[in-house]
Each structure stands twice: as structure tokens, then as C-alpha cells.
Queue: 2 jobs
Job 1
Amino acid sequence: MQDMEIEVLSTHLPHELTMLHYALEQVNGLCVDSSSNDKDPRLIMAFECFWLHARNLFEFFKTDDPKASTISPHVFTKTKLDYEFGSSDLMERINAQITHLQRSRGLSASAPLTGAEMIQVKERIDIAVSRFQAELKDDLKEWWSQREPVAIEYAENLSPTACTEIQMTHLETSRSKSSIFHYDTGPNVTVTFDER
């Protein structure tokens, strides 16, 4: 096992999981906070932070090639596991909606990311982590701190509608053009999102 792989196992993977958990806790807490609304930068920050770390974890658990730039989970496990993350649709939606420096940001998104999906993604990642640590190679167990999913009591308004409003408000705000700078973004496009 190379030093970089041990560092991923002992430091970087736990970091991604911890950040995902705390970002979701922050979104949840701000949804309960009556002084917060869908334009609150704290809520937008926590929402984006969650999806950035979710994206990193998806990429890790979906990487099949042991020589890919993202380390594959198969390097660490006794057997090659299928973490059942399915199609790349969600990854494409995260890239389209969260990555700010793309010319077509938000235009290729088929549906906004929602609070309900945050909860589903957290549960999916918890299952993947359980499978991963159960199949961890014996000689690597000393580098891994066993993790148990932490239950969160979700706010009632951590709902598809609430988080859709956060995302749509932020997408619209980030698309405004400056009077000083002009960005060539091609023809104007009208985007509609389906409620799920």
C-alpha cells in the first residue's frame, strides 16, 4: 500500500464523510431557523458544500479503474464491490448546478437538486461506507476509524420545495450579467425544471 492510499483511507475519505454530514446538519438547522430564508448565504453555502462533498464521494465509490486519477475503493477492499450508485445522472446534475465557472451552468440540469435528494444521498453514502468498511482488507484496518451512520431528525421544511427554491434563487442570482463585464454565453435559453 502506497503512502498516498493510506492517507486517503486515514485522512481524506473521513474528511469527505465528516464534511458531508456537517453540511447536511447545517442545511437542516438553517431550515428550522425562522430568521433564515432561501437567499441566506449561510444556507446556500451549506447546500453547495453538501453537494460538493457528495460529488467527491460519488466519484470515489464509482471509480472502477485502480489507475484512475481518483483512487478506487477497490484498492482497499478484499473484493470488488458494487456500491449501486447507478447512472451518472445525479453527478451530471451536481456538475451543472453547483460548479459556478462553467459557461452553461444550470442550463443542462434536468431538475434542481432538492432537500429530499440530500437525505437520500446521505443514506446511500452511509450504506456504501458500511459495505466498504465491512470488506476492508485486514492489513488496512489499523488506518481506518470505524464509522456508524448518525441519525438526524430532519426539519419539516427540508423538503423538495424548500431546497428547490434555494437552488433556483441561487441559479438566477448567479446568472445576472455585470454592466462592466460581458460573458459570451451563447443564445438565451429558457430553462424549466420539473418538480419531483
Job 2
Amino acid sequence: MPQPDHIVRIPIPDQDKLDDDILEYFNKCQEKLGLVPNVLRAYTINPEKFRNFSAFYNHLMLDEDTTGLSKLEREMIAVCVSSANRCYYCLVAHGWAVRQLSGDPELGEMIVMNYRVARLSDRQRAMLDFAWKLTLTPHDISEEDRQNLRDAGFSDQDIFDICDVAAFFNYTNRMAHGLDMIPNREYHGMDR
């Protein structure tokens, strides 16, 4: 059975009514990805929040100069958190990103379903164990958990970044659930 056709369950502005900077951003997405992610279309409901969301996302997930985490590691956190939260949108969209960045179509699927079955480095496993725990039982995070990350080779800046990515996807997962956000169909067939 195909997924639903809607983007979100509340009205979004017609594309021809969007501000020029947003349309320019959409054109860059189309150029680089071959699509405009539905999450961006959803955020056009509030143009200022669209700008803040896209700027924060780009800094958090795409910038390579401000973090010791690779793009793949950040995407793995996104998928792990989204798995814990059962966020269909983010599992599809970021599962694709893991497939693309890793060159491994199985890795994205394993992290979607149960990251513990994946062959991961000790570093990656410690990172995902922490992200999973921070998502499901954040009140149980302790110095021992941070020390486990240090023992796996993460710096304190890296620990901050792991928390930042996990927290961001806990937020976006809740937005996706609350709005019944549906991912672009194209993601399903990409990098398989």
C-alpha cells in the first residue's frame, strides 16, 4: 500500500506565494538533491521559522568545520533517535542519507530497525548507545555515560555535538508526528 500523498495535515502556502529567498533555497535543494524535502515545505507555514530551521539544520548537519563528528555519524544519530521515536519521516529521509554517505544500503536499514544488529565500530556503538539513552531515558544520563563516550575517543566538544544532534532530532521527530509529516516518495528508491 503506498504512503499517503499529503505533506502535512495542515495547509501550507502555495509555492508561488513564497518569499524569493525561500524559492531560491528550494532551487538549491532541487539542484543538489533532485527534490525539495517535504520538511522544508512544511516549515513555509512560518517563513521566519523556515529560515531559522534551515540555518540551524545546515550548521548542525552539513558544516564540517565546527565538529569532530562526520556527516555520516551525525546522520546515524538522526536515524537512531528517529528509530527510538518511530518517526516515519526522519527514518525514511535520514535512512537514505546513511545509505548515501556510507555507500551501504544495509546500514541505513539496520539502524532504522535496530542499530544493535549493525556492524559498528566501538566509537559508533558508544555514540548510538548514548543517543538512544538520551532519547528514551534522558533523566538517566550520567557522568558514566559521558565517560563511555570519552573512552570511545570522543572529545568534550564531540559529546556536546552528539547531544545537539540527538536533541534536534527529538524536536523534529515531534514536529513530524504532530503534523503527520510524510517524506518525499523519491527517498525510498535512492541509493539502494
